[in-house]
């Protein structure tokens, strides 16, 4: 039976930057939980960040050679990229050790965003793209879905497990 990596905040864990959760209620998640499939993960906490913590966003800057550089920064400019990379590495290691091929992650997060993140200006502006963990998982072949795509994830998992 396939395991599913799920953002812990979606499952009710109070690990978000503001100290709260982003709990969702979904019959598919309830079924997967009952089947023992769900593996909760919070890459930001796993990366060593406290709860609560300063909000952070992904900033795209160009270096002197014109190459795009991605950094995770707080509104006051603190670079917190390293804990985000560390957390992504831990989530990826967990996925690999359990053979996980599908993840449901909290969209919009600089770690877990899978269709959008915020633009780094702290104005609420969304931009298409992946968070640090979502990108690492995708690069390793894990299929990443957001919390609004649980039905699609369930269909993909059903196809995966079909003999």
Describe the structure.
It is a single chain. This protein is α/β, with parallel strands linked by helices. The protein has one domain. Helices cover 31% and strands 22% of the residues. The protein has 5 helices and 8 strands, in the order E-H-E-H-E-E-H-E-E-E-H-E-H. The strands form 3 sheets. A 4-stranded parallel sheet has the order 2-1-5-8, sandwiched between helices. A two-stranded antiparallel sheet has the order 3-4. Strands 6-7 form a two-stranded antiparallel sheet. Helix 3 runs parallel beside helix 4. The chain is globular, with a radius of gyration of 16 Å. The model has no long low-confidence stretch (mean pLDDT 95).
Question: Could you give a short description of this structure?
Answer:
With 163 residues, this protein is an alpha/beta fold. 31% of the residues lie in helices and 22% in strands.
The overall number of domains is: 1
Q: Mean pLDDT across all residues, rounded? A: 95
Compressed to H and E, one letter per element, the order equals EHEHEEHEEEHEH
- Spans of at least 5 consecutive residues with low confidence: none
Tally the helices: what do you get? 5
Radius of gyration from the alpha-carbon trace, in angstroms: 16 Å
Beta-strand percent range: 15-25%
Overall outline: globular
**Biggest beta-sheet profile:** 4 strands, parallel
Percent helix range: 25-40%
DSSP E strands, number: 8
What's the end-to-end separation, in Å? 12 Å
* Biggest sheet strand line-up: 2-1-5-8
Which structural class fits the helix and strand makeup? alpha/beta
